[in-house]
Sequence to fold (72 residues):
Amino acid sequence: MAATPNPPSYEQARDELASVVASLEAGGHTLEESLRLWERGEELSAVCQTWLDAARERVSSADEQAGVGPTE
Fold:
């Protein structure tokens, strides 16, 4: 799938991912449809992880500037 110019927000990606998971769990898809849904789920998971990594970095940076220890 081609990269979109404006990736979804974390919330949009999370909500669509939840919908994809629910659809897969409900079943009734052909193998091809299931694979397409799985691939979309993987893409959305990566988007969410990117957002979470960026948020973690921002918090760590803010903590460093404030002189606070690691948050892990």
User: Anything to note?
Assistant: The first helix runs from residue 10 to 26.
